[in-house]
Amino acid sequence: MSPPWLKSVPDGVELAILVQPRASRTRVVGEHDGLLKLQLAAPPVDGEANAALLEFLAKQLGVPRRQVSLTAGDASRRKRVTVLGVDAARAEAVMSGKT
C-alpha cells in the first residue's frame, strides 16, 4: 500500500507535499500529517521556493525538470506536484530514502 502523500496518475505520480522554506538545507524530512515534508533552503519570495522544490524533486527522481509541475498550492505550504515518467514504487523508494 502506498503512503497517503503518493498517488498514481496517468503517466506518473502526484505528490502531496508540506514545504518548510528557509531551512538550513534542502532535504526530505519524512511524513507529516499525511503529507511528504520537505525542508527548502530557498525563501518563499518571488516563487524561489517553488522553483527550488521542483528542481529538487526532478534531481531526486532522476527526471528532466520539464516533467515536474506544481499542480496546486502555488502560495501555500501545502502543495501538489505531478511528476511524469516515474512510477509510484520508484517515487516511494526515493522519497522514503530506500534507494
In this structure, how is the largest beta sheet organized?
Answer: 6 strands, mixed
Low-confidence stretches: none
- How would you describe the shape? globular
CA-CA gap between termini: 18 Å
CATH architecture verdict: 2-Layer Sandwich
Describe the structure.
- The chain is α+β, with helices and mostly antiparallel strands.
- It has one domain: YggU-like (Conserved Hypothetical Protein Mth637, Chain: A).
- The chain is 22% helix and 36% strand.
- It has helices spanning 48-61, 88-95; strands spanning 6-9, 12-20, 27-32, 35-39, 68-72, 78-84.
- Strands 1, 2, 3, 4, 5 and 6 form a six-stranded mixed beta sheet that branches.
- Strand 3 (27-32) and strand 4 form a beta hairpin.
- The chain is globular.
- The relative contact order is 0.24.
- The model has no long low-confidence stretch (mean pLDDT 93).
Search tags:
99 residues, alpha+beta, Conserved Hypothetical Protein Mth637, Chain: A, six-stranded mixed sheet, 2 helices, 6 strands, globular
